[in-house]
Amino acid sequence: MKEIGIENIDELFLDVPERFRLKRRLELPSPTSEYKVKSHIESQLARNKTSRDIIAFLGAGCWPHYVPAVVKSITQRTEFLTSYTPYQPEISQGMLQLLFEYQSMICELTNMDVANSSLYDWASGLGEAARMAMRLTNRREILVPRIIDPDRLATLKTYIAPAGMSIQKIDYERYTGQLSVDDLEARISDKTAAVYIENPSYLGLIETRNDEVAKVAHESAALFVVGVDPISLGLLKPPGDYGADIVIGEGQPLGNYMNFGGPLLGVFACRGDMSMIRQMPGRIIGMTTTRDGMSRGYSMVLQTREQHIRRHKATSNICTNESLCAAAAAAYLALLGPNGLKELGETILLKSHYAMKRLSEVGGIRVPIFHAPHFKEFTMSLSSGRVDNVHEQLLRYNLHGGKNISKEFPELGEAALYCVTETISKSDIDALVNAFTEILLEGAS
After folding, report:
1. How far apart are CA 181 and CA 213, in angstroms?
2. Which of 120, 247, 360, 376 is the most exposed place for a label (fewest CB within 10 A)?
3. Nearest CA among 310, 307, 288 for reference residue 299
4. pTM for this structure?
């Protein structure tokens, strides 16, 4: 206190307005033993229920997928778990190689030329893609689908507001829920930097007119940005095949657990034009050989994009990446391989469609709301009653319902977004159908 020139501890908090300061002692229990504290905390934690304790049909951006034991074993190795930034390649070859393999598999999965070694999440990837498009086109408008995750949209607004960019929403076809190409054609202009779509969409719909969207975007000299759930690419055509310039997405399904909504893993890839690569945010790991050509070596490349080199002139303020999550994704993709990823996609497709078929047989439920192909997630609406009330009653059956989207899309009425992954069994779906039947029958009576 003498060294920093204060006479009491309260002076450390002078910048906190007086009205916000607590005027009494904290109401804390008296000191006790470590054992009793530990027992108390465990009893409090036991009040929570996780997806291990309850059958959960909740997705909407963070999904309950199975993480193989091999993935956890690799990511818990200390050389990966404790590594931070591979600035010094001579002591970081293991992590650098793993990140290079991650980038290579993301490129193969999306059919793009270059991928970075990850961003924070899908939402930050969208914000970075918008700013990247602005730098490449010198335009300040981005078109996004009307059906988009509100949280993702909020992050996009946060990213682009300081750059003076604006957003226009593209409407959807009311029958299919898919992006309206007619509305896109009406809204796109010489101010548009990028057209963004999601496939599958936030509501689980598979877009079928991607080639047309790409054509409209490119005819206006705008970039075509595609957001993906990478698990779906075991079945769906990769974005690079239908003209994507930038591909983003959420890598959490690739071997990463749900941890209170994070950490997540932002997938980001683009075409191989050097003008694009130099404007891509985040880190790129490159492979080379020793001077004698006898051994491979890995290092960070094109670091002039980074803030530790260019400071305020860097393409992004993203410096810390999600290396450990990317390491998990690399292990996961290597473990499954192309055939395993395809089988996983087929399993999810079959289970989610079985759930839709069974739920459609329950009176008082409309499912799916839209007439289009779906993957993993789908919407349902209630003809009577409130989604929140039904979901609360589902908990009595040890079932957690989907996400209530009634406020996000009021035109859909009392509606919810449900998710079915490989972790959901046929008996789980049947239990949900039986619970819905009993709950809605009680409500009717």
Report:
1. 7
2. 360
3. 288
4. 0.91
Q: Decide: 339 and 110 in contact? Cβ < 8 Å.
A: no
Per-residue confidence band for 444, with pLDDT thresholds at 50, 70 and 90: low
Whether 155 and 174 map to the same domain: the answer is yes
Distance, in Å, from the CA atom of 261 to the CA atom of 67, rounded to the nearest integer, reads 16
Give pLDDT tens digits for 247-270. 999 999 999 999 877 789 999 999
Backbone angles phi, psi at 426, to 5 degrees: -60, -40
Number of domains making up the chain: 2
CA distances from 387 to 65, 260, 282, 404 (A): 25, 23, 41, 6
With respect to residue 254, please indicate whether it lies within any of the assigned structural domains.
yes
Domain boundary residue, one of 333, 357, 381 = 333
Whether 320 shows a pLDDT value over 70: the answer reads no
Domain range holding 289? Answer: 69-333
Per residue in 342-357, pLDDT tens?
999 999 999 999 999 9
Is 328 a member of any domain?
A: yes
**Ramachandran assignment for 302, one of left (phi > 0), alpha (psi -120 to 50 degrees), beta (any other):** left
Q: Which residue has the tokens 């390491």?
A: 327
